[in-house]
Structure formats: C-alpha cells, structure tokens
Write a structure and sequence with these properties.
By secondary structure, this protein is α+β, with helices and mostly antiparallel strands. The protein is built from nine helices and 13 strands. Strand 3 and strand 4 form a beta hairpin. Helix 3 packs across helix 7.
Length: 363
C-alpha cells in the first residue's frame, strides 16, 4: 500500500480516510491513478459532484456505497456505473436492519478494497457480470435463516464470505479451533480470489501443464482430498513444499494459498518502500538479513528480488512483534519449494500484465 497525504495541507492519511482531520477537506480515492484526492464541491453542482482541490478539470462522483460509510472510492462523472471498481463486484451485501452488520460490512469492505487496490496495481483482469458469465462476484452473508450455515468459499467466480469472519472474537475462535497460525479478512479475500485467478489465468489461459509440473495434478478428487486433510491433518513434510498446512490439502488450495501469500508480500513490501524502510541488523555477518525496500514490488522482474527483501523484513517485524508480546506478523517459513511456487505466481502475473500493456499500446 502506498503512503497517502492530503494535497492541501500535507497531512498523512490512511487509505480508508474520508475526511482530512487537519484541513477539513473531504477525501476520495481514485483507483486508476491510485491517488487519494482532497475534494471540493464542483461549481454549480447539487452537492453530488466533486473536483480535486485546486483543480476543476475533472469531475467525480462518490461510489453509491459511500452513503453507507463503507466506501470512499470515486467514479468519473459521465460513467454510467453507480458503484466503484471494488463495490461493483458485490452481488449481496449484509442485512443492514441489524445495526451490528454495518460495522462488520465496513471491515469486509476495507479488506475487499485493499484487495482490489493490489489487483489493479498488478494489472490483473477484473471482470464483472453480465460482461463475463464467470465475472468476479461477492456474496457477504450472515448465518441466519435460509443462509445458515454460510461457508466461505469460491464457486466459478462467486466468492462467499461469512459475515461472522468480521467479528474479531469469532474469527479468533475459529482460528484457534482450526489450528491456524493466521486468519484475517484480508487473508480470506486474497485466498478466495486466488481460486478465481486459477480459473482465469491457469485453466483458461493455457498454463495447465506448467501448473501441474509445480503444484501437482488438480484432477485429484477435491472432496476426497479435503476429507483426508481434515481427518489426518497436513502432509508430514508440508513445511518443505507448501506455504501453509492447508496448502498441502489439494493443488487448488495450494495455488490459492500461494496466491494469497504473494499478495501479502507485494502489498507489505510496497508499504515498507513507502515508509523508506531498510533492514540493517547490528550483528556480525548480517548479509542475509540486510535489505533495502527501495523498489516497486508490482514491477519487480524476478521473484528473487521480492524474496530477498521479504525474508529480512518479515524476520525484523516478527522480532518487533515478539518484543511487544504479540504473535508473529508473518508466522510462516518459506521453503525453497514454496518459493518456487511463488515464482510461478510471479511469472504468471507479469506475463498477464505485459500482455495487457501490449494490448493497450496497440489500441
């Protein structure tokens, strides 16, 4: 994530901010240029159009979900959509007659908007329906009535998220019950969208043989594989080949877990770069623990550049967390086998981005 600041008063801002507390300007995020804009009401508008502070060349509308205080993204005036590039993927939103659902939805949208931010930055396709029969959709459902029980998962482009995952206490209980080292809303949406990109960029884009050579054969019975995993646990040698125990259950889950970790790494490295972080341990022979976060991870040509920065950074931040009595920020060890799979994801993502840029130049 980039570091944002108000163009009017230079106040540092968070991605989700809707108001600059220092100068009072309304804020809106413009996803195409990845900028958080300070806004003024557009001249002679009825209060629904905005311009960037100090400029009147372009007019913007806020996403319709801004009315629910769950979105601060902008839409160019003249665009027929009423929802932004993130919210237009919603099919079902929570039942807002329950006041508690409002806060849960805010947390879910924060995670989903951060996901969309990274997907756009990487140049990955984001199709919607009805333009694509398997376009990306989200159902944000609660365990009640005909929806009980809600299982978080993916089905041909439809991602279902159980609203209970936005309750910190309930999510922590599920993490403990399932013996997981890490469980977050952002982790959920990154994992589930990984399944969608398997369909789009592996199954439908001619990469099945390359995928099977690295991850294994996805034609292995999926239901039976999950039953074995829940009955017997992870593969005994999972740490040598997988990013997490769950990744060892089936090649589809291995891909989705690895894809999620790739997004974890890229987004966190961008944040570290935005803050000018570097890791220079004051110990003897600290070469492998030394790193400069001085590059754009979305444009890194080789996965080794990401890993060479990530390993020292995650070790340093885990050490800081332990100094505060907190769990490790990144409670995983990346084996050579897992890094090879991250390399597959990296190559796939950048091949897709290069193809997109080539098509834009031809147009």
């Amino acid at each position: 994530m980039k570091l944002f600041q108000c163009q009017v008063c230079a106040q540092p801002l968070f991605f989700e901010n809707t108001l600059c507390e220092k100068c009072g300007h309304s804020l809106g995020y413009e996803p195409n240029d990845r900028r958080l804009l300070a806004l003024d009401p557009a001249p002679e508008s009825q209060g629904d159009l905005w311009v960037e502070a100090g400029s009147s060349t372009r007019r913007w509308r806020l996403c319709a979900n801004a009315a629910h205080d769950v979105c601060n993204w902008l839409i160019c005036d003249g665009d027929s959509d009423i929802f932004c590039r993130s919210c237009q993927h919603n099919r079902t939103i929570p039942n807002l007659t329950d006041p508690a659902n409002q806060q849960r939805w805010q947390k879910l949208e924060s995670a989903k908007h951060r996901l969309t931010y990274t997907l756009i930055a990487l140049g990955l396709p984001l199709t919607t329906r009805p333009t694509d029969p398997e376009g990306l959709l989200f159902d944000l459902l609660e365990d009640s009535g005909p929806n009980a029980p809600v299982l978080t998962g993916h089905d041909d482009g439809l991602i279902t998220i159980n609203l209970a995952e936005a309750d910190d206490q309930e999510r922590e209980k599920r993490r403990t019950d399932m013996g997981e080292a890490y469980r977050t809303l952002l982790g959920h949406v990154r994992h589930e969208v990984g399944h969608w990109y398997w369909n789009k960029l592996v199954r439908d884009d001619g990469r099945l043989d390359a995928f099977r050579a690295v991850f294994g054969d996805e034609r292995d019975d999926y239901g039976a594989a999950l039953q074995r995993h829940y009955a017997n646990g992870a593969a005994p040698d999972w740490q040598m080949r997988f990013v997490s125990p769950y990744a060892s259950s089936h090649p589809w889950e291995d891909f989705a877990e690895t894809f999620a970790h790739y997004l974890h790494i890229v987004d966190t490295l961008e944040t570290a770069n935005a803050f000018g972080l570097a890791v220079r341990p004051r110990i003897r022979d600290a070469g492998e623990l030394t790193a400069e976060m001085n590059f754009d991870p979305h444009r890194s040509k080789d996965v080794s550049q990401l890993i060479d920065a990530w390993l020292p950074l995650s070790f340093a931040v885990n050490s800081l967390n332990r100094s505060m009595g907190q769990p490790d920020l990144y409670p995983f060890v990346l084996s050579p086998g897992a890094i090879e799979k991250l390399g597959f994801i990296h190559t796939m993502v950048h091949e897709q981005d290069q193809r997109r840029l080539h098509e834009l130049r031809r147009a």
